[in-house]
Hints:
This protein has 740 residues and is of the alpha+beta class.
Amino acid sequence: MPHWLRRTCQTLWLINIVGLPFVALAVFFFSLANAHAETARSPLVTLDEVKSGTLLLKSSDAGRYIEAPRVATDVDIVVSGPTARARITQIFTNPSNGWVEAVYAYPLPEDSAVHALKMVVGKRVIIGDIKEKKEAKAIYETAKASGQKASLVEQQRPNLFTNSVANIGPHEQVVVQIDYQEPVRLSGDEFSLRVPLVVAPRYNPAPVTQTADLAADGSGWGTTADPVPDREKITSPVLDPRVNAPVNPVSIKVRLQAGFALGEVKSHHHPVNIETVDAQTQLISLAGDNHADRDFELTWKPQSAKAPAVGLFRETIGSNDYALAYITPPVIEQKQEERPREIVFVIDNSGSMGGTSMNQAKASLDYALSRLKPADRFNVIRFDDTMTSLFQDTVTADRNNISTAREFVGNLEAAGGTEMLAPLEAALDDRRPNDQAFVRQIVLLTDGAIGNEQQLLDTIAAKLGRSRVFMVGIGSAPNNYLMNRAAELGRGTFTSIGSTDQVDERMRNLFAKLESPVITNLSATFSSGNADVTPAILPDLYRGEPLVIAAKLSSLSGTLTVKGMIGSQPWEVTLPVAKAAKGEGLSKLWARRKISDAEVESTLGKISRDEADKRILKLALENSLVSRLTSLVAVDKNVSRSQDKPLTRADVPLNLPAGWDFDTVFGEQTTRKADLENGSDVHLAKLVHSNKPVTIQPAGEQFPLPQTATDAELRMIAGLLMLLASAGLFFFTRKTGKAS
């Protein structure tokens, strides 16, 4: 070998033996460090990396989990006479090392007018705007993709909303404030306010029971509709309380300014502190630690024996005047309804009714059976994902039949799904539609935990006939939207029973209504003219119920006259509009009730769905309200997340409603028909709250979480290849040197 070639090989050998391994090792360790850095930026963790008390959601990356976002809620309410103004503050916390989009499903009162959104990021306050739903969603998605913090509030049902908050940084907090107005409720001499705090898991029937829409052109072809087309939007992971501490802490403060001297003030399901400011004003706040697992219910009564019989309030916004009237007809002592009743009781014994709810429902129905008279006729229908009618037809309420019914009810156990449509249709099946000898009534006892509400409402509207539907909401978190709307369409009432100790009083009040003459043929007229009054269809009233009217007026003058029939006697009352007291938020309440009018008229077939949508969109945009067709969106102009950092979506987990039994609810999922295996199920997840958790994935799906965005594995492989290459070159040069 020539001398120059030997020296060149020796030089290369020296470089290889000394330098190249160092270069390869540097690449290897750099890659390893980069992998650790990428892992630190990822929201995904292994079980060995979790800390005590961490709540984990399973990801699509085997063996890795995401730390669930957390929410704390503060509710601040001011009651001013007939209205309540509320501000909900939601504090979103990202406990993970990555960037997260948190999605939180939460309830609001079904008649609430949601109108304002603020997002607080550091010291910046971003004000939300009302936009058409599709436009708001597009704005939010663009901001999310760009790395800007954004919040989107959408209505999924009138009492179910979702708040999506994008680009929450590692260990960062984002504060979102939502404002709404609602009317105070009055029944008899008791005023009430309800704050729903948890979304109960809803049973979504499989898309095998569908409605068909045939083309108007007479071709015979058409389409079918899923009974729950938005099933994926109304589900959230739900904690198993046996292995998880409750999450989503909540605080509530109510400034109660009744407008009259207060008597008893009572919180029915939460311990509270009460401070008296003056005879008409009290401050109520939750006592101790509380979590979002049951509705908050506050009631108050006047110091005098009776509540005011009438109330009239006004508000001027711009060039428009608004009025809100409460009018309670007098109780005129007269004969009770002379006709006997044909009454069908329908009781829900599905899995969601497990625990104390089933006890409340059975106690309520037992009480109802005890109130039947020998001249009455009755039947009992029970349902889960099957149904049983106790008798083939309604039977006389004699001792033997009532005893049989009580034994039947006493043996009921909660299990299975909540297929409510078939038993409702069976109850509405009137075999003697022209029989005026009996008053026909249906009493449905349920928590209403279903997603196909519209299917039931359409059925009531189409098949009501001479029947009247009375809803009894059972449990700590009933679906009040379904209850109230079903009662409205069914020309009945809604009664809520949230604990066993409320059964006797509230069922007694319900039967006082069932047994008393109905106030009918109601009309409301403003003498000043050009009044836009809601509700458009005035309801029948039952004993102790007020007529609540909202109106947009041309001027605050003239009179409001209400007329009706109490049993067989005419009744009339006149109120001077000019003497109305000052109120707040009346314009929002008027618009919200006008939106409900459009929905009801569409369900009743009085207007088309297109016409209803036009009215709703116009009302919502003009009055800045969240609705089925509008949303609130807020976007931070600053970019928080760079494009090289992955963003993971995670639904905020919810508590199981208080009193529910996880096994019977979760078992509800396993008894479904095989058709559900390919569909979206009720989203029940056994989550993690321990050092070494066992995470059970929600049935049938995984959270769509991205993989860690890094090429560290490729870099480490390259480093190892360089080490092998240097070793090969070393042995080659040694061999070549010896050969020379």
